[in-house]
Design a protein that fits this description.
The protein has 104 residues and is an all-alpha fold. 0% of the residues are buried.
Length: 104
């Protein structure tokens, strides 16, 4: 199985988005006493024009995760196919339990 960390993209995405260097708007300039709720994690601010290249590692991680998911067994089966198999297995279990009770 792939490691769970492979699918945990939210921290990296949050860190990347928090680095975007937002230019001050008229609303933020009008009320300088109000502090921003966004705190940088100590990383360098990211110019919005650099975002496409900065997001490449996250996109690569997502692609790798998708490739790993495709290798898992039964990923090509539909939910309906899986439900049918579950129903068949439950029927088989009931029959086996009946046989065991009859043997007692």
């Amino acid at each position: 199985l792939p490691p769970p960390q492979l699918f945990d993209i939210l921290p990296a995405l949050h860190e990347l988005l928090s680095r975007i260097d937002h230019a001050p708007t008229a609303a933020t300039l009008a009320d300088p006493g109000e502090e921003s709720e966004i705190a940088y994690t100590g990383s360098q601010p990211l110019d919005p024009k650099d975002l496409p290249s900065a997001v490449l590692p996250i996109k690569a991680q997502i692609r790798k995760g998708l490739r790993e998911l495709e290798t898992l067994p039964d990923m090509d089966r539909s939910v309906e196919e899986q439900r049918e198999e579950i129903a068949e297995l439950e029927t088989k279990i009931r029959r086996q339990e009946e046989v065991l009770r009859a043997m007692e």
